[in-house]
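Model it.
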Amino acid sequence: MTARQQAVPYDTAPATSPFGLGLHHVQLALPPGEEDKCRAFYVDVLGMTEVRKPPALAARGGLWVRTDGLEIHLGAEEDFRPARKAHPGILVADLDALAHRLEERGVQVTWDDDFPGRRRFYVADCHENRLEFLGPGTPATTGP
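Modeled.
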């Protein structure tokens, strides 16, 4: 077993592994039977595209959506509880345009200045799952 590396400063160059790791998708939960409500948020509000689930997985319910380099799987859970702390951090090229679109559609946008070298805001999806959206820039320019 090799010794663990020391933590590096956040603004260091990206780290690599010998395995070529990458993120395929993020899984969030929804209550059973609430797929249409999720479609209204993820497809109609966020502008994502629904992806047909493979037949073996479609029987479980849920919804898969993707756009650009992002894929989110929403899985039906009988004892659903929203993820209010755990969340995906989603990169956005035009953060202000997305914030404006969300606000126009009645979604509350909460700006946060605490991330070094990034502007960001949080929203809750249609089932109160937390989503973080990050764009380029410095926190001093946060907000529209």
